[in-house]
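Action item from last week, closing it out:
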Amino acid sequence: MTVPDMPEVMCIGQARMTAGLDRTDRIDLTTHYQVFGSLPRLTADQLIGMAEQVSLRGRGGAAFPVARKVKSVLETARRRRRKPVVLVNGTEGEPGSAKDRMLMLRSPYLVLGGALVAARALQASEIVIGVTRPDVARSLSSAAMAEPDLRRVVRVVQVPDRFVSGEGGALVNALNGKPAVPPGRKVLPSDYGVDDLPTLLSNAETYAQIAVLAMLGPEGYATTGTPDEPGTYLLSVGGSVERPAVVEVPAGLLLGEVLDLCLAAPWEGVLVGGYHGMWLSTEAAYNVPVSRAGLTAAGGSLGAGIVLPLGEGTCPLGEVARVVGYLANQSSGQCGPCKLGLPSIARALTALADGSGGVDALDTARRGAAAVRGRGACAHPDGVFRFVLSAIDVFGDDLAAHLFRGTCGRRATGILPLPAPEHGDSRLTVDWTRCRGHGLCAHLVPELVQLDGQGYPVFLDMPVPHWLQQEAQQAVQMCPSLALRLVAPAPSSSPSPVPVAKEPAKVKLAARKGGNLKLVASKPSDPDLDVDEAWIADLSDVGRQIPRPIT
């Protein structure tokens, strides 16, 4: 099975997450046993003890201690007398991240094995895996079908592919049939998760780390890394590099070695941690250790392990403005900081980048980023705050050029990755031969439209967010001059993305006669996968009729 659209995989030092990938594109069950051996059965106390001994933390961004999560789920399950659920967050919705997808496509048994270790320890009722990509769903489902213990308990669910849908609470909402947005209030999955059951939620790499820890034991696991942070990290390295790659590195290795390995072009700054992370200067990035403690001391954050150097061939301020516009569009629109604050920041940064804004626009961006901090219904505004203020600090020379000359002489070339426009995206625009500057549109959708000094509309350069569609349509209908338009993007020559159902599309292992479990499907199977049933692309209706997996 070939793996398309996948960056190179490299390793510095001892391979663990990437073991065996130098020999094959995808590790099947037989090869997995040859490379990793069999999984031991651990009790909950053993798993907690091992995770505490090596200070294992989640690899999804928040770096929450795994042992504390397991304890919390165990205590809730005992108190409520309910079987818990193990939930793998395989959505990986942030642009620039590829490490979880790499594991699920190329070494699926490492992820599934870690989930199985946790499920056995907690005596969980099932393992649920939330994904956004059909190819990832196929990979995990076919792998589970081939292993009897996994076949009985695994359920793969496809959810909408949006930035905020990868947040843990949003994933739980999607699995429970609700909109795939953060809940807006503090609801711990360990208390009420999938089907309101106590749920152990972590991302794909975290479960792969659990599998390696179970197989090596704490002493073996700690033979690489640092005494305070044993083990390895997976980094998704992109941006201005000649060799984009997923790189496995021991904790404590200097980030400069990773950048050199990936042939990073001369850069002006490095984003570490993704679009909720922070920018580091060239010198700081080159000398910072790849560890939680090292990056925190340098003013950054490891986050989800995304590393994006920005080279000299693009406009840094333009790149930052592009991303902030995307982040404003991708919010769930549940609170003022997201609905009004993020578009305001995006508008100010765009004005700075195109030369139409000056010190006032810079002040608006600074004040806006500070204003949304700690006030959102979820962590999204806080992430934008870190991204924006660290960019203003690191790209000071470029900012000064835009303030005093209107431009740095470069254009934004799209080095920072963003997804292609989604099917159904639309933008507000205006027929200037009709517009009379009534200004009604700015009152109806102030998030997207502001008025210039003459009272004419200025539009924020981003698609209309899903939570503003009704207001945007109303503005079009109420325009006194009939000048306002909602325009769909021009057709792309590239293949259209696979549409995602509004409700979760479920890929289940369902009971059949004789106790065998099959993958229920309604589309011809992929010949590259060892699945003898048809494949489901959209099971939002069919999934409700399929029996739950046998436990």
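Closing note: The two ends are 31 Å apart (CA to CA).
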